[in-house]
Amino acid sequence: MNRSNLTVPPEGAPVPAPHPDAPVGVPLGPHYARCFGCGPDHPTGLHLEAVSEDGLGVSATFTVGDVHQGAPGLAHGGVLATAMDEALGMVVWLLRKPYVTGRLETDYVLPVPVGATLYIRTRCTGVVGRKAYLEAEARMDAVDGPVAVRAAALFVEVPVAHFERHGAGTSGGDGAATSGGAGTSGGGAGGVASAADLGRRVNP
Ligand SMILES: CCCCCCCCCCCCCCCC(=O)SCCNC(=O)CCNC(=O)[C@H](O)C(C)(C)COP(=O)(O)OP(=O)(O)OC[C@H]1O[C@@H](n2cnc3c(N)ncnc32)[C@H](O)[C@@H]1OP(=O)(O)O
Fold this sequence. Notes:
Elements: E1 49-52, E2 57-63, H1 77-94, E3 99-108, E4 117-128, E5 131-140, E6 147-157, H2 161-166, H3 195-202
Antiparallel strand pairs: 1-2, 2-4, 3-6, 4-5, 5-6
The structure holds Palmitoyl-CoA.
The site of Palmitoyl-CoA has 26 residues, from helix 1, strand 3, strand 6 and helix 3.
């Protein structure tokens, strides 16, 4: 894909070992019930479903709905980028450290119609200090279908305080904190409903 050197790990950058508690071969469940990418409580979200392949790579599916259109009948490019971002985020979620997307690069290879299912595979290609390098590929309608979207990203590790400081309404009982139980299905990585939950997940 066309990408900048900002999303390519420096030569020799180590690929991390999977976290000992990282699930393998099981659905991850949502990391947060109201997440636009994976949350079951989001009415028009992507409802992306992901499975940990080996603790460092993730397979995910996203079916384009009516609410995801840009041009008539076609997925909005920003929505597709979100699906890639979400699937990439599931990989760093497996590392059990808080990360945010710093940079996301996307190649749109094919138009993606409403009703199409994207089969997304993502992988961490290296970690240097707080920076995690990741890449993703989405194939249309089958795991071996044509490539529709490619993405590469740099995620940056942040302290839990990042979410406490910047996230409005995630710890004050406005419903987010009680929508609860996110990610507990499927034996996956476990979801959070607040920054405090996130802190417990990172430092159990
Ligand atoms: C309520 C609880 C909810 C819990 C939830 C848990 C989360 C579980 C996620 C699961 C899945 C979600 C999937 C979706 C993930 C999102 O969508 S995250 C939301 C979108 N992203 C954001 O909001 C991030 C906003 N940006 C920021 O907060 C800050 O700019 C950043 C990225 C933290 C960096 O700021 P900083 O901490 O001051 O770090 P800084 O020293 O500037 O940079 C550190 C290094 O990264 C590099 N860097 C930083 N930004 C960039 C960039 N854009 N390009 C290239 N390099 C960069 C720097 O050059 C530096 O490199 P070195 O000098 O170390 O070589």
